[in-house]
Amino acid sequence: MWDYERGDIVCPKCGTVVERIYVPPITSREEDRELLKSFRRPQPKLSRLSREYLRILHEIKSNKRLSSRAYIDSAKLMDFVKASSNRVKVIRVDLPKPELLKDPKIKAVLKIVAKYPSLHSRTDRAKVAIALIIYSLIKKGRVNVGEVSRSTGLSRMHVRRLIRLVSREASFLKEAEYVLAKPAPLEGP
Prior knowledge:
By secondary structure, the chain is mostly helical. The protein has helices spanning 29-38, 48-62, 74-81, 104-113, 117-120, 124-139, 145-152, 156-168, 170-181, and strands at 2-3, 8-10, 17-20, 70-72, 91-93. It has two domains: 48-93, no CATH class; 95-183, Cyclin A, domain 1, CATH 1.10.472. Helices cover 51% and strands 8% of the residues. Strand 2 (8-10) and strand 3 (17-20) form a beta hairpin. It is elongated and about 110 Å long. The termini are far apart.
């Protein structure tokens, strides 16, 4: 039975409310204000460069291993946003031992690395690791993965992958062996 006065459907036998017909709206000025506060104001749109920068910065900050040593290379970020560079090179991590870059043998191997796209596309730390791997393979016949890992700051697994990559490039090994066999040029005053 319909009870229009209270807005209920009432059971005619026992008089209990079975269902409500309508619910009166409960609004007041305070509730309206709270509702208006909950609406988001439109945020200004960020450029693609800013969005990428913030996203990469968030990745660096959330990665505990990288957060203290990594930074964003702004020139590489610009190239990445223009879609002419690889995203891997946007985040830069300096070498733990920067004196490695001053070694003439490492410099010679790095010049050879530039000729091979599969090796040259790596990060700067990986290129130095490749140079150390080549140098140890030629001089000692084996690679100390732990030493290369400590001196470049790469993981041992990453160094092992680089060793496999270098072993596939036979012409690179021969060219590097030839260059490293030459006597080092004397430096003038």
